[in-house]
Every structure is written in structure tokens, then in C-alpha cells.
Amino acid sequence: MASSDANSLQLYLRLLRHVKPYWAPFGLAMVGLGVTAATEPIFPAILEPLLDGSFVHKQGGMLAWLPLVIVGLFLVRGTSSYASDYLMGWVANKVILDLRNAMFAKLVRLPTLYYDNQTSGSVISKFT
Fold first, then answer.
1. How many CB atoms are located within 10 Å of the residue 72 CB?
2. Which of 30, 42, 67, 97 has its CA at a distance of 20 to 30 angstroms from the CA of residue 121?
3. Phi and psi for 30 in degrees, rounded to 5?
4. What does each C-alpha distance from 70 to 15, 31, 39, 42, 76 come to in angstroms?
5. Domain chopping of the chain, boundaries
6. Got the DSSP string for the chain?
7. Residues 46, 42: Cα–Cα separation, whole Å
């Protein structure tokens, strides 16, 4: 099991090198994920005082501004979640495109003897 973990770590670090040209969008996606995660526990914390006493005692002060806070919180969460999902998808597509271009460039530069000795099925399976 330890060997599998080491191989997974090596593979992850190797793939992370391909993300290096896209560090700015990747970093913004990580910030968006952090904001989304940070705002997750805020909603129950906001609702706790409301449910503990405001509805029972009819305290008007908290009931007046709380809907605006909740809407604002969901706007922040939605925006950060959308931005992080979009940026992570964009980075993933760019990394896949770079890997495909590198793989195709490698196949184009191989000598014809390689293709003479390999079946087309084995070349396609390696490419896939």
C-alpha cells in the first residue's frame, strides 16, 4: 500500500508541474474554494441566535437586517463557488490540451521504424 501511495504522490507532483503556466487562475480558484469553505459555517452561526430567541421574543432589530445578511452570504458563496469551479475547469482543460499536444508532438517525431515494428492497435492504445 505504501508503494501505491508513493506512486500516486509522484504522479500528482508530475501533473502539478503542468499547472505551473496557469498558476494565477489556479491560485484564484484556490482562493474561491477557501472563501466558499470559510462561509459554510457562517450560515448556521447566523441562524442560531435567531432560532434561539428572536422568533420567540419578537426581537425586531435582528429580524430587520438578517434577511439582507443571508442574501449577501449566499451571493458571496455562489460567486466564489462559481468562480472556483469555472477556473478549475479552465485550468484542467488547458493542462489536458498541453498534455495532448506534447503527446502528439512526440508521436510525430518518432522514427518510421517505430511504426514499422508496432501494430496500429498498440500505438492507438498507448495514445489513448
1. 10
2. 97
3. -65, -35
4. 39, 21, 11, 10, 10
5. 28-127
6. -HHHHHHHHHHHHHHHHHHGGGHHHHHHHHHHHHHHHHHTTHHHHHHHHIIIIIHHHT-HHHHHHHHHHHHHHHHHHHHHHHHHHHHHHHHHHHHHHHHHHHHHHHHHHS-HHHHHHS-HHHHHHHH-
7. 6
1's grid cell: 500500500
